[in-house]
């Protein structure tokens, strides 16, 4: 199957570049990519140079794959992810997670900037579950049996043990880590106030345009998942207007806590 061949080709390419046996995949969302700059003994590749890899065009996304040591762990970090709203097929959006699994990662840390439904700007929210509101599913199509089952269980997509560790670590650092459900839309529009009222009723605490596809693929292949949202704004209807500049600006303010938290969590996972 073509997808499988592509995964193997990219895996072989990255291994040949020295990106061998990473333990943790890190997917760094809007404005959060700076964490990758702290990776030691780094091997860095431009997305453009990696076979079968997508391209990242959003402001605040660097488009680099960084391998190396962070908090004593071997990590493979995506500085910028691929969004569905850019016109990427879901296969491209989730391809890096497939490759992380193929390279030997046992876990992924997924991060994003999100609108707060029950939390305000500046909050770090541990994702304990999600609602897939993208209108599709990245596993539609022939199943990759080598990776996981046709009908994967999503009951424990976000690893419980990791959530406990995250709370302990946050407490030690004096970070007020909240917890909740992330609802993923396709974007690129922000939501309408009516949609946000509906999502609140559905049980969502935060809303965004990413993460859900990657976590579905991770869960399918048995990767453990830790998810963290940086809440950058009140979701539509709870504040005057929404814009990307504000998202970038608030992310700048919380990235210090964000980086500290992820590094400290990685040290104990
Ligand atoms: N909605 C969707 N995605 C987002 C938001 C939002 O309010 N803020 C940051 N990403």
Automatic annotation (TrEMBL):
PROSITE patterns on file: PNP_MTAP_2
Catalytic activity: a purine 2'-deoxy-D-ribonucleoside + phosphate = a purine nucleobase + 2-deoxy-alpha-D-ribose 1-phosphate
Residues covered by the Nucleoside phosphorylase domain: 24-267
EC numbers on record: 2.4.2.1
CDD domains, per the entry: PNP-EcPNPII_like
UniProt-listed Pfam families: PNP_UDP_1
InterPro entries: Nucleoside_phosphorylase_d (IPR000845), Nucleoside_phosphorylase_sf (IPR035994), Pur_Nuc_Pase_Ino/Guo-sp (IPR011270), Purine_phosphorylase (IPR011268), Purine_phosphorylase-2_CS (IPR018099)
Keyword Transferase attributed: yes
Pathway(s) this gene product operates in, as recorded in its UniProt entry: Purine metabolism; purine nucleoside salvage
Keyword Transferase attached: yes
Family of this protein: Belongs to the PNP/MTAP phosphorylase family.
Functional note: The purine nucleoside phosphorylases catalyze the phosphorolytic breakdown of the N-glycosidic bond in the beta-(deoxy)ribonucleoside molecules, with the formation of the corresponding free purine bases and pentose-1-phosphate. Cleaves guanosine, inosine, 2'-deoxyguanosine and 2'-deoxyinosine.
Subunit annotation: Homotrimer.
Name under which the protein is recorded: Purine nucleoside phosphorylase
Organism annotation: Streptococcus rupicaprae
